[in-house]
Amino acid sequence: MTNPNSSKRIDWRIALLGGHKQRVTGAPADTVVVTPIGGADVDLSDAELPARTTLTKVSLLGGVKLRVPAGVDVEVEGFHLLGGRRVPPAAASPSAPVVRVRAYGIVGGVEVSRA
Question: What is the pLDDT of residue 60?
């Protein structure tokens, strides 16, 4: 599926019960993960990141664990009633790739780690 405003592919992952685990080694597509109960565990540490990549997570219960290469800028937005955000600072240059995390849910948070 593609966004009509972009030629970039969007990868949809839907799980009714349980989470989503993914390790990306090539060029990642923008990803949308929908899991009523379950989290998303995405490893982009070996991916060939474009200038901007987006991960969108929608769930009732479950958070996001994201692993990115060192030097990548990570932007987090969205809301959770219960849960936090843990994003370690990076020494990203202005030309560094940006991974945007949009996380929406009731219980869960966002945890980012760097390779």
Answer: 93
